[in-house]
Design goal:
The chain has five helices and seven strands. It has 144 residues and is of the alpha/beta class. It has one domain: Transcription Regulator spoIIAA (2-Layer Sandwich), CATH 3.30.750. The strands form two sheets. It has a five-stranded mixed sheet, with helices on both faces. It has a two-stranded parallel ribbon with strand order 3-5. The longest helix has 12 residues.
């Protein structure tokens, strides 16, 4: 069974969070949020890609969004993110992402393809390098 995870590339000011557990719950989202945001390299990250695995199940509804955004908006170290993109590929999670990003404190965007994520992040790296970085765990988690 996959676990939620993240990888930071501080030299590129870039990080990826994979939400890929079998079932996404507020508890495991809180755990990954805390782990990511307490990492010593967190203040160096300017670009974040959050990939929601298309196979993960969730039981969230619109009424859960304030609680989920409260979890997400909790900071432990200085947040220097300039761009955040949530990559989703299922209709219901896309609808939830649309409503969720409006409740975040940062300027989050959402999309469903690698190409659009690359475009929205607008990082100063080549597309093929970007694809190799996110391929670390994403082989079947997302759409190309």
């Amino acid at each position: 069974m996959k676990q939620n995870d993240y990888k930071m590339y501080p030299e590129l000011n870039f990080a990826i969070v994979w939400l890929q557990s079998e079932k996404l719950t507020s508890l495991n989202l809180k755990e990954i949020n805390h782990s990511y945001k307490t990492n010593e390299h967190y203040p160096n990250i300017h670009y974040l890609l959050v990939i929601v695995d298309k196979h993960s199940k969730h039981s969230f509804s619109i009424k859960d969004l304030p609680h989920l955004s409260e979890i997400y908006n909790t900071e432990y170290l200085p947040n220097n993110h300039k761009r955040i993109v949530w990559m989703v590929s299922q209709p219901l999670i896309t609808a939830i992402a649309h409503l969720f990003v409006k409740q975040t404190k940062d300027d989050s965007k959402y999309c469903s393809t690698i190409q659009k994520a690359y475009s929205l992040l607008n990082m100063q790296i080549e597309y093929d390098v970007f694809c190799k970085l996110i391929d670390y765990k994403s082989s079947n988690a997302i759409s190309n």
